[in-house]
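W.,

You were right to be curious about this one. When I first looked at the sequence I had no strong expectations either way, so I just let the prediction run and decided to look at it fresh. Below is the sequence, 321 residues in total, followed by the output.
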Amino acid sequence: MVATNDKGVSSRGARSLLAPAKLNISLSVTGRRSDGYHLLEMINIPISLCDTLILTPLQTGDRNVVTIREEDISPLTASQRTELEDPARNLAARAVNAVIEQSKNKFRYSLDIVKRIPLGAGLGGGSSDAAAALKLALAKCDQTIDPAWVAALGLTLGADVPYFLSGMSARVSGIGEVVQPIEIPGLKKLTAVLFVPPFGISTAAVYQSLRSVELALSDELDHRLNRSTDADYIERVSLDDLSAKNDLEPHAAQLEPRLGLLLSDIRDVCAKFSVRLAGMTGSGSVCFALISREQRALVADSFNEVAARHNATLKFCRAGF
């Protein structure tokens, strides 16, 4: 049986699980497949900012129900709520639906999601919810399902879902399907400081911007593709060897100039206090800095000033959750 872990509970048939956000400490675009999907090379880490999912089998009723509750994030728009509460469109519900279809154990369900991970932020909230829902559904069905089928389903739901199914820091490549767990000594001693600006950024728009300049970048992309397969990428990765460079950043900043201004101010503070790992996660819009316990006291006031200047929300999370 696939059961919820020590971060989940089970009561009267209901099961719950935390769905953590992720940071892309680094993100390199290494090429593009013939079908248009971009090839990436990333170092991802989970953080302690989490959504909560509760899956409850229904004894009565003829339809599935998805309920969204916001907690410490901007209120959802009417269109966002409509999409997220539609069992046929919500990624997490689609994961449950697929498992039920594959399983002999058919049931109707209520899926309650407490959203703490902002939308359109590059933190992977939707994909993490889908991975958590997949685990909950597998636990409810209590039967063996081909792991290869589960992995393939994860990728069809979203490029980040295979990573979230791993549940740990990892080197991720391809279009997201190649996940190699890694150990980063000292990571869990760090705090991830998140700057959540008052705007989101469309992932599709960022990749469309990238696609428009790919011809000019083709030599550089080919070089990175060759480099990404060498033996330097090992399971044990030192913090000192990590870089916060994100190839999507200039494209996101071009679409939303306020992002570039925010990043510039964050990096000015980081340079002053010797904070080395700071940048944008995913395709934006959230920016981050990884700081030590000693640095937190030094940078707190400056980070608060930057957040206030850009009308951004500041969140402090545990790294390597």
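Here's what jumped out at me. The mean pLDDT is 89. And, maybe more interesting for your project: The chain has ten helices and eleven strands.

Coffee later to discuss?

I.
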